[in-house]
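Recap quiz, item 2
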Amino acid sequence: DAGVIQSPRHEVTEMGQEVTLRCKPISGHNSLFWYRQTMMRGLELLIYFNNNVPIDDSGMPEDRFSAKMPNASFSTLKIQPSEPRDSAVYFCASSLRASGGPRDEQFFGPGTRLTVL
Amino acid sequence: AQSVTQPDIHITVSEGASLELRCNYSYGATPYLFWYVQSPGQGLQLLLKYFSGDTLVQGIKGFEAEFKRSQSSFNLRKPSVHWSDAAEYFCAVGARNNAGNMLTFGGGTRLMVKP
Protein backbone atom coordinates (compact mmCIF):
# COMPACT_ATOMS: atom_id res chain seq x y z
CA ASP A 1 0.00 0.00 0.00
CA ALA A 2 1.32 3.43 -0.93
CA GLY A 3 -0.06 5.10 2.16
CA VAL A 4 -1.73 8.49 2.16
CA ILE A 5 -0.55 10.55 -0.80
CA GLN A 6 -0.43 14.32 -0.73
CA SER A 7 0.49 16.76 -3.46
CA PRO A 8 2.26 18.99 -3.89
CA ARG A 9 4.89 18.41 -1.19
CA HIS A 10 5.92 22.04 -1.28
CA GLU A 11 4.01 25.08 -2.50
CA VAL A 12 5.21 28.65 -2.63
CA THR A 13 2.72 31.26 -3.71
CA GLU A 14 2.03 34.95 -3.44
CA MET A 15 -0.59 36.53 -1.24
CA GLY A 16 -3.96 36.63 -2.92
CA GLN A 17 -3.42 33.57 -5.07
CA GLU A 18 -5.58 30.46 -4.90
CA VAL A 19 -3.95 27.34 -3.46
CA THR A 20 -5.24 23.80 -3.85
CA LEU A 21 -3.85 20.94 -1.81
CA ARG A 22 -4.64 17.37 -2.78
CA CYS A 23 -4.96 14.13 -0.87
CA LYS A 24 -5.49 10.50 -1.81
CA PRO A 25 -6.41 8.40 1.23
CA ILE A 26 -5.51 4.78 1.75
CA SER A 27 -7.76 2.54 -0.32
CA GLY A 28 -10.68 1.24 1.74
CA HIS A 29 -10.47 3.93 4.39
CA ASN A 30 -13.72 5.79 4.97
CA SER A 31 -12.61 8.69 7.18
CA LEU A 32 -10.40 11.53 6.00
CA PHE A 33 -8.93 14.38 8.02
CA TRP A 34 -7.20 17.66 7.16
CA TYR A 35 -4.80 19.13 9.73
CA ARG A 36 -2.66 22.24 9.85
CA GLN A 37 0.60 22.37 11.80
CA THR A 38 2.40 25.55 12.82
CA MET A 39 4.96 26.35 15.46
CA MET A 40 2.58 28.69 17.21
CA ARG A 41 -0.58 26.61 17.23
CA GLY A 42 0.69 23.04 16.93
CA LEU A 43 -1.44 20.46 15.16
CA GLU A 44 -4.99 21.63 14.45
CA LEU A 45 -7.84 19.62 12.94
CA LEU A 46 -9.44 21.65 10.18
CA ILE A 47 -12.14 19.32 8.88
CA TYR A 48 -12.97 15.66 8.61
CA PHE A 49 -15.11 13.50 6.38
CA ASN A 50 -16.85 10.17 6.89
CA ASN A 51 -17.88 8.36 3.72
CA ASN A 52 -17.14 11.52 1.70
CA VAL A 53 -19.47 13.65 3.82
CA PRO A 54 -18.06 16.54 5.88
CA ILE A 55 -18.81 15.83 9.53
CA ASP A 56 -17.08 18.61 11.42
CA ASP A 57 -15.60 21.72 9.83
CA SER A 58 -15.45 23.79 12.97
CA GLY A 59 -11.69 23.95 12.71
CA MET A 60 -11.70 25.69 9.35
CA PRO A 61 -10.26 29.11 10.12
CA GLU A 62 -12.48 31.20 7.87
CA ASP A 63 -14.43 31.29 4.64
CA ARG A 64 -11.26 31.47 2.61
CA PHE A 65 -10.78 27.78 3.36
CA SER A 66 -12.89 25.10 1.74
CA ALA A 67 -12.57 21.33 1.45
CA LYS A 68 -14.23 18.78 -0.77
CA MET A 69 -14.27 15.05 -1.11
CA PRO A 70 -15.95 14.20 -4.41
CA ASN A 71 -15.24 10.49 -4.04
CA ALA A 72 -13.67 7.99 -1.68
CA SER A 73 -10.22 8.31 -3.21
CA PHE A 74 -9.69 12.04 -3.46
CA SER A 75 -9.99 15.21 -1.40
CA THR A 76 -8.93 18.81 -1.84
CA LEU A 77 -8.30 21.68 0.53
CA LYS A 78 -8.53 25.07 -1.13
CA ILE A 79 -7.47 28.46 0.15
CA GLN A 80 -8.74 31.46 -1.78
CA PRO A 81 -7.33 34.06 -1.46
CA SER A 82 -4.23 32.94 0.39
CA GLU A 83 -2.54 35.07 3.05
CA PRO A 84 0.94 34.92 4.63
CA ARG A 85 -0.56 33.69 7.90
CA ASP A 86 -1.74 30.57 6.08
CA SER A 87 1.87 29.43 5.80
CA ALA A 88 2.05 26.05 7.53
CA VAL A 89 2.36 22.34 6.91
CA TYR A 90 -0.95 20.79 5.95
CA PHE A 91 -1.46 17.11 6.67
CA CYS A 92 -4.05 14.74 5.37
CA ALA A 93 -4.83 11.57 7.31
CA SER A 94 -7.19 8.67 6.74
CA SER A 95 -8.60 5.87 8.85
CA LEU A 96 -11.09 3.05 8.77
CA ARG A 97 -14.10 3.76 10.91
CA ALA A 98 -15.57 0.45 12.07
CA SER A 99 -19.15 0.77 13.21
CA GLY A 100 -19.47 -0.26 16.84
CA GLY A 101 -15.84 -1.19 17.11
CA PRO A 102 -12.75 0.45 18.49
CA ARG A 103 -11.51 3.45 16.62
CA ASP A 104 -8.63 2.68 14.36
CA GLU A 105 -5.52 4.75 14.06
CA GLN A 106 -5.15 7.61 11.64
CA PHE A 107 -2.52 7.23 8.93
CA PHE A 108 -0.86 10.48 8.00
CA GLY A 109 0.47 11.65 4.69
CA PRO A 110 3.87 13.37 4.38
CA GLY A 111 2.31 16.83 4.38
CA THR A 112 2.34 19.85 2.10
CA ARG A 113 4.55 22.71 3.18
CA LEU A 114 2.81 25.92 2.13
CA THR A 115 4.58 29.25 2.03
CA VAL A 116 2.57 32.35 1.19
CA LEU A 117 4.75 35.36 0.43
CA ALA B 1 -15.01 17.48 25.17
CA GLN B 2 -11.73 15.72 25.63
CA SER B 3 -8.36 17.44 25.97
CA VAL B 4 -4.72 16.38 26.12
CA THR B 5 -1.81 17.98 27.94
CA GLN B 6 1.83 17.22 27.31
CA PRO B 7 3.55 19.20 30.07
CA ASP B 8 7.06 19.02 28.61
CA ILE B 9 7.65 20.99 25.44
CA HIS B 10 11.30 19.95 25.15
CA ILE B 11 13.23 17.08 26.70
CA THR B 12 16.91 16.28 26.28
CA VAL B 13 18.33 12.91 27.25
CA SER B 14 21.65 11.19 26.72
CA GLU B 15 21.87 8.29 24.32
CA GLY B 16 21.36 5.06 26.26
CA ALA B 17 19.43 6.74 29.06
CA SER B 18 15.83 5.92 29.86
CA LEU B 19 12.98 8.13 28.69
CA GLU B 20 9.54 9.00 29.95
CA LEU B 21 7.26 11.44 28.13
CA ARG B 22 4.22 12.60 30.02
CA CYS B 23 0.66 12.76 28.75
CA ASN B 24 -2.44 13.69 30.74
CA TYR B 25 -5.91 13.64 29.32
CA SER B 26 -9.31 14.91 30.29
CA TYR B 27 -12.31 12.79 29.37
CA GLY B 28 -15.35 11.54 31.24
CA ALA B 29 -14.83 7.87 30.46
CA THR B 30 -12.02 5.62 29.30
CA PRO B 31 -10.77 7.09 26.07
CA TYR B 32 -8.89 5.64 23.16
CA LEU B 33 -5.25 6.69 23.55
CA PHE B 34 -2.47 6.99 21.01
CA TRP B 35 1.15 8.03 20.78
CA TYR B 36 2.52 9.27 17.47
CA VAL B 37 6.05 10.24 16.48
CA GLN B 38 7.00 12.86 13.90
CA SER B 39 10.50 12.92 12.49
CA PRO B 40 11.69 16.17 10.90
CA GLY B 41 9.96 16.82 7.59
CA GLN B 42 7.75 13.78 7.94
CA GLY B 43 4.15 12.99 8.76
CA LEU B 44 3.04 11.40 12.02
CA GLN B 45 3.61 7.69 12.58
CA LEU B 46 1.74 5.63 15.13
CA LEU B 47 3.90 4.22 17.93
CA LEU B 48 1.21 2.49 19.96
CA LYS B 49 -2.43 2.64 20.98
CA TYR B 50 -4.65 1.67 23.89
CA PHE B 51 -8.26 0.67 23.53
CA SER B 52 -8.93 -1.70 26.44
CA GLY B 53 -7.45 -4.60 28.38
CA ASP B 54 -3.88 -4.68 29.59
CA THR B 55 -2.92 -1.19 30.69
CA LEU B 56 0.70 -1.62 29.62
CA VAL B 57 0.91 -1.34 25.87
CA GLN B 58 3.89 -2.28 23.73
CA GLY B 59 4.62 -0.39 20.57
CA ILE B 60 7.13 -0.19 17.79
CA LYS B 61 10.78 0.85 18.14
CA GLY B 62 10.95 -0.44 21.73
CA PHE B 63 8.43 2.03 23.14
CA GLU B 64 5.75 1.24 25.69
CA ALA B 65 3.06 3.24 27.45
CA GLU B 66 1.00 2.67 30.55
CA PHE B 67 -2.59 3.77 30.97
CA LYS B 68 -3.29 4.90 34.54
CA ARG B 69 -6.94 5.69 35.00
CA SER B 70 -6.48 7.10 38.50
CA GLN B 71 -3.99 9.64 37.20
CA SER B 72 -5.62 10.24 33.80
CA SER B 73 -2.23 9.58 32.29
CA PHE B 74 -0.74 7.67 29.39
CA ASN B 75 3.01 8.17 29.68
CA LEU B 76 5.38 6.92 27.02
CA ARG B 77 8.57 5.13 28.04
CA LYS B 78 11.66 3.64 26.53
CA PRO B 79 14.39 1.96 28.59
CA SER B 80 17.31 3.02 26.39
CA VAL B 81 17.12 5.90 23.94
CA HIS B 82 18.88 5.82 20.58
CA TRP B 83 20.01 8.89 18.64
CA SER B 84 17.42 8.05 15.97
CA ASP B 85 14.64 8.60 18.52
CA ALA B 86 15.15 12.35 18.30
CA ALA B 87 11.80 13.60 17.03
CA GLU B 88 8.57 15.17 18.19
CA TYR B 89 6.10 13.00 20.05
CA PHE B 90 2.36 13.54 20.19
CA CYS B 91 -0.17 12.03 22.53
CA ALA B 92 -3.74 11.85 21.24
CA VAL B 93 -7.14 11.01 22.66
CA GLY B 94 -10.19 9.66 20.89
CA ALA B 95 -13.64 9.71 22.43
CA ARG B 96 -15.53 6.43 22.45
CA ASN B 97 -18.82 8.11 21.71
CA ASN B 98 -17.95 10.25 18.76
CA ALA B 99 -19.39 9.38 15.41
CA GLY B 100 -16.10 9.41 13.62
CA ASN B 101 -12.48 8.81 14.39
CA MET B 102 -11.68 12.34 15.44
CA LEU B 103 -8.64 12.63 17.67
CA THR B 104 -7.53 15.43 19.94
CA PHE B 105 -3.77 15.90 19.94
CA GLY B 106 -1.52 17.30 22.64
CA GLY B 107 0.92 20.06 21.90
CA GLY B 108 3.81 17.66 21.41
CA THR B 109 7.13 17.05 23.15
CA ARG B 110 10.32 17.56 21.22
CA LEU B 111 12.97 15.01 22.18
CA MET B 112 16.64 15.74 21.69
CA VAL B 113 19.25 13.05 22.22
CA LYS B 114 22.79 13.88 23.33
CA PRO B 115 25.60 11.64 22.16
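The mean pLDDT of chain B is 91.
The longest strand of chain B covers residues 87-94.
End of item.
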